[in-house]
Design a protein that fits this description.
The chain is 34% helix and 19% strand. It is of the alpha+beta class. α4 runs antiparallel to α5, α10 packs across α11 and α12 packs antiparallel against α13. The longest helix has 21 residues. The two termini are 28 Å apart. One of its GO terms (molecular function) is DNA-directed DNA polymerase activity.
Length: 380
């Protein structure tokens, strides 16, 4: 890695709340403290939206089927999600961020990047700023956060996971390349289980193994990710913190306690999803050209149907008509439906299409805000 110029080196902090949804529930319900908690789902059906650290000891993770989670942890306590509360707490946290930097890029309700190169309060140390932010979060919300501090976004994000929960880790410019060399390949952003398995078959287990491969090799085996991997394994990442990053899509979905089989039940469910998503679209004054219907059947088979139009969808009537057209394309049903979702994507700028700072939210079981996630999320 080329030597860092102190005059141009960025100071980046990644703040990640610890088991955010579950920690809020344990804070507000003392009887849940110290016990394995799953937010969302039920013992019989659904998907875990978040798990407390006590539950994670048993292998319970977000996006895991509830029945699997209960099998791994028989004493698991399921609680319904309270997204209004989570959003309120998230806003408290963002007000804290704003005291220290104007360059804040939220990734979800519970994590964000801050660029503190321009020291707003004249503190002089990114590490000290991260410590102060964590302290204020604890004092004001009763929750803990972990922080990663480094000279780029990739390393800051990896570092925030290093000493979880309630920890801080710093990667200095002179240590970046060495730190990445020993980093497990699966911890590179965007490397999910399948990619990690492919890397293992190629003899790539840590960052140093990636660095030993040339760009051509990486392009052959990893396609569009090649340039990112080539730079990341050298401790390089030139992406700026973008406070005006635009949302890629707005959507919602619902998992049902009983499969939807009758036309009347399916129609009523679709109306609810249309209302849910259009409320979100209207509140953000968003413009989009593509409507996508997501359906998961009783046997867990999942399909999507999409329709794009030349001009942005500007009213609920048009959005509803497109959604119903997509639903008609899958009728008659061959089996019951356990999940329905709608998404408006192809978002664009225009009158009323204001930049959106909240890019993604974790996927809960019911009334989820579904966004096109960047890639597979690193375990926290």
């Amino acid at each position: 890695m080329a030597a860092q110029d102190p005059a141009t080196t960025r100071k980046i902090i990644h703040i990640d709340m610890d088991a955010f949804f579950a920690s809020v529930e344990q804070r507000d319900h003392p009887e849940l403290r110290g016990r394995p908690v799953a937010v969302g789902g039920s013992a019989q059906r659904g998907v875990v939206a978040a798990a407390s650290y006590e539950a994670r000891v048993f292998g319970v993770r977000s996006a895991m089927a509830s029945v699997t989670a209960k099998r791994r942890c028989p004493q698991l306590i399921f609680v319904p999600p309270r997204f209004d509360v989570y959003r309120e707490v998230s806003q408290q946290i963002r007000l804290i961020f704003a005291r220290y930097s104007d360059l804040v890029e939220p990734l979800s309700l519970d994590e964000a990047y801050l660029d503190v190169t321009r020291d707003k309060l004249g503190i002089g140390s990114a590490t000290r700023i991260a410590q102060l932010i964590r302290s204020e979060i604890r004092e004001q919300t009763g929750l803990t956060a972990s922080a990663g501090v480094s000279y780029n976004k990739f390393l800051a994000k990896v570092a925030s996971d290093q000493n979880k929960p309630d920890g801080i880790f710093v990667v200095l410019p002179q240590h970046g390349a060495g730190f990445v060399a020993t980093l497990a390949a699966r911890r590179f952003y965007g490397v999910g289980p399948k990619t990690a398995q492919r890397m293992a078959r190629l003899g790539i287990h840590v960052g140093a193994d990636l660095r030993a491969r040339d760009r051509e090799f990486l392009q052959v085996h990893f396609g569009k990710s090649a340039d990112y991997l080539y730079q990341a394994c050298r401790g390089e990442d030139h992406r700026p913190v973008r406070p005006d990053r635009l949302r890629k899509s707005i959507g919602g979905e619902r998992t049902y306690g009983e499969d939807l089989c009758e036309p009347a039940a399916l129609d009523a469910a679709l109306v609810q999803i249309i209302d849910l998503v259009w409320d979100r679209v209207s509140s953000r004054q968003a413009l989009g050209r593509t409507v996508t219907l997501k359906v998961k059947y009783a046997d867990f088979q999942q399909i999507t149907r999409a329709r794009s139009v030349p001009d942005p969808v500007r009213g609920k009537t048009e959005f509803s008509a497109l959604a119903r057209e997509l639903m008609q394309s899958i009728l008659p049903l061959e089996q019951g439906v356990r999940l329905l979702g709608l998404t408006l994507s192809g978002l664009c700028e225009g009158p009323g299409a204001a930049p959106e700072s909240v890019v993604a939210e974790p996927m809960p079981v019911q009334q989820v805000l579904q966004f096109q996630a960047d890639t597979e999320t690193c375990a926290r």
